[in-house]
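Worked example

This section walks through a single chain of length 133. The input is the sequence exactly as stored; nothing has been trimmed or padded.
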Amino acid sequence: MALIIDLKPEEKILIGSAVLTNDKQRTRLHISGDTPILREKDVMQEDEATTPCRKVYFLIQCMYLARSPREYHPKYFELLKMIQSAIPSTSIFFARINANIVQGQYYKALREARDLIAHEEELLQASGAVIPA
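Given that input, the structure is written out below as tokens.
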């Protein structure tokens, strides 16, 4: 079954290690195969990883895009321990993320990491902290 992606005019998409930029009209792509695919809106640049949970997302994104995802595991698990120690309520999010990582389902882990970031933002807002952009 092919993945169907509708691209807006001039929207970018990452397929494997290639960045494709749509022309000035909407386009529908049918993609078959097993390669990492991320829309521009889902890509986090390293300088955007401004909080611990955003760093988790960035590391999972690196795993998803890497030929050898395990090279990012030590940094990820070190960060996970630090976050869970400081914020125990993140454990449920990490349980779901880790289940996907163990199965090699990095895209699903990325989706779960978005929920982790939302949780972090809620906690920061509740504490009155300034949320980094």
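What to look for: The radius of gyration is 16 Å.
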